[in-house]
Amino acid sequence: MTTATASQDDHADHGHHGPAKGIMRWVLTTNHKDIGTMYLWFSFTMLFIGGAMALIVRTELFQPGMQLIEPEFYNQMTTMHGLIMVFGAIMPAFVGLANWMVPLMIGAPDMALPRMNNWSFWILPFAFGMLLFTLFTDAGAPNFGWTFYAPLSTTYAPSSVTYFIFGVHMMGISSIMGAINIIVTILNLRAPGMTLMKMPLFVWTWFITAYLLVAVMPVLAGVVTMMLMDIHFGTSFFDAAGGGDPVLFQHVFWFFGHPEVYIMILPAFGIVSQIIPTFARKPLFGYASMVYATSSIAFLSFIVWAHHMFTVGMPLQAELFFMYATMLIAIPTGVKVFNWVSTMFRGSMTFETPMLFALAFVVLFTIGGFSGLMLAIAPADFQYHDTYFVVAHFHYVLVPGALFGIIAGVYYWLPKWTGNYYNEKLGKFHFWMSFIGVNVTFFPMHFVGLAGMPRRIPDYALQFADFNAIATVGAFIFGLSQLVFLFLLIKTIRGGEKATDKVWEGAEGLEWTIPSPAPYHTFAEPPHVK
Amino acid sequence: MFSRTWQRLSSVVLGVLTVPTALAEWDGNMTRGVTEVSQSIFELHMLIFWICVWIGVAVFGVMFYSIFKHRKSKGAVASKFHESLSLEILWTAIPTVILIAMAVPATSTLIKMYDTTNADVDIKITGHQWKWQYDYLGEDVGFFSNLSTTKDEIYNRTEKGENYLEEVDKHVVVPTGQKIRFLITSNDVIHAWWVPDIAVKKDAIPGYINESWALIPEGEEGLYRGKCAELCGIQHGFMPIVLEAVTADEYQVWLGDQRAGKVAEAAAALGDFSFDDLMTEGAEVYVRNCAACHGSEGQGMGSVFPALAGSPIAINDMAGHIDILINGKPGTAMQSFSAQLTDVEIAAVITYERNAWGNDTGEMATPQMIIDAKK
Predict the structure, then answer these.
(1) Which domains does chain B have, with CATH numbers?
(2) Are B223 and B171 in contact (CB under 8 A)?
(3) Are B359 and B309 contacting, i.e. CB atoms less than 8 angstroms apart?
(4) Total domains, chain A
(5) In this predicted complex, what is the ipTM?
(6) pLDDT in tens, A30-80
(7) What residues of B are in contact with residue A380 (Cβ under 8 Å)?
């Protein structure tokens, strides 16, 4: 993505340490900017692959009846869509942004563990290559949903489940290494004077996210290993016929899975907390309370997992505990939203594309938060659970939540990366198409879910037809408008109005003190933070 | 001019305030249902919904006020304030109070839902890929319930019926005015038995028996439709539930009919069957029970579900063929059909499989062979 080259390296005495030529530059690189770029392109590719699968699903659901694909392939599509978007698009995109921006924001010359950084990226194409190749095998791709509940994913799984397990292990290794690298970098490479409570919020949220990753990715590895043992080595962890417990699977999976959903949203909180002050030209309101709120959310994420399992038949006391604990999350999340709104209040706002995406994030993520609060109410969840209401909820927090956060971040830092301003008109067009598309797709899902449409079904009763048709139209609007984004990115990389060092009038922070585009090596001499 | 805008605005606000009643009848809201529990869940849902709406109005109100008033293009100059401890405490405390107000009714509803004691009727529900089995405990009545929507409707070859994908061959019949306890389990993967009108949704998990209950008040007799809510494989979208609530007297009559029907069935198995009878019935049984995995032409599916056309079991080994239907094949998705199909049906479908799609063995399995094999 970057056009920065060795010639722009202002440290002439080791200028020959510039990037290698050709493809080997990318294979061998240990430069945080190169690796960040690769992560971002990788996740963008995955976004299109996962998005194409979503469009296949939505096309089948356009009308009642089976038209395009068979139920078996439909299940493969929903499963792969979920896995690819969660592990291939959202998570690597955040790691890419962290690679690029964390060193620039804390005044570090690079990530602390550059070789491991290279490895943690290069594992990913192989992991996803393996996962995707199962689509072309006889048995077909995994078809048991991205939550892969046993025994559907063990005794009753297609043989490709073994590739899936290996793929998940590789993704997990990549994530854990990436997270360790971020923790070590933040703890050790901050510029003099950059105390913890002076760190930009993006750094803070990633710091907390990285601890979540280190804590829960091994749990995911554990649960898929138990599956592997059940399938191939005769154990019965999840097989009731052998004395095992299918519900154990869900407890272990969601002990990973709930922190995982915060892994996918906390860095977006950080990005939005950078962007809103810049374009409101006013410091972030309640910086310290933002840090504490993020930490509280991270802590709570470990004690709410069973709210995904209200209908498995837990004892009443457990239901009540998980309901109350889940409701508590609304408090720190509310504090964050109130702080963002207070930052805007009596600011001097302008509405460039990053700000538009950030504002949409605040509104639409909050709507996703509201439906989350409704889902937390255990008795009501007996009606919501496993319906499209849940699909609407988590797509509201993940698409206009996490994904809009990422897109806002890309627009915000793009001039710093490429040295060029993007085309503002095109950016705004991309925003409005995405905004309309996302709402037309996911808002009707609330209604169709409340009306009783279960999720993960390839065909539905006639009363759900209208809402489904609308959602499909929205999905195509949203999907196609991402091509505008691709076009804009390529155009910006290739040229455009030259960006200033500060890029945005209201920008604050170390990343805006270096030239645009950012030179290949930055902060070889640590800056001093007052 | 101003007053007209104001009028319009207040009518919108009034409209929003009166919407709750309208929403209940609209297709896009939660089912209010017919039981006390389902109605208190509905009330709870609407309460939380309106609390969220008003919080949203307040928060987004301030946000959009700032967006319109405090924009640079209108000459707004940024203030410098950036923290306030009292504000932070205030907007921690107020949500806490609101949450407690939500938790109180939620807790009492949940306690009510968990009280499965003193049931009048016990129905054991077993999930299978992809059908429901109902056993009326202590009544000697039990049966399987399959989707009755035809493949032609699903694949758009004929007009779709009114209850497309929400109709079954045998309704689960329950009495009104009596407390019914559902004991829910599964024979293979996890399913979830869900009927929105009685607000019962419970996972059917192999190795577990989950409990739930409903009391449908007298006067609310009728059909209530539901679905499997947990992904359970290929036909997850095709295993609906139809609950038929009848008066207590009608329920007793129905139970009697079921028992009589069973006796008649057993007697019928001892009768004579022609090859053609068995082939006709077998084709029907096949479509309903086997085609989902083994394909409508016996072609199988992927590497998991073997083809029956040309299969050694379906051509050579008659005893093995009968055995696999009666006992299933452990470790695979092939389940035992011994309980869910009658002896006549098993004989019919075996006869069909041995003579369809080029499997021209000319052999016929009789119901008597099935009865003998089961001994």
Answers:
(1) 11-113 (1.10.287), 121-261 (2.60.40.420), 270-374 (1.10.760.10)
(2) yes
(3) yes
(4) 1
(5) 0.91
(6) 999 999 999 999 999 999 999 999 999 999 999 999 999 999 999 999 999
(7) 30, 41, 44-45, 48, 106
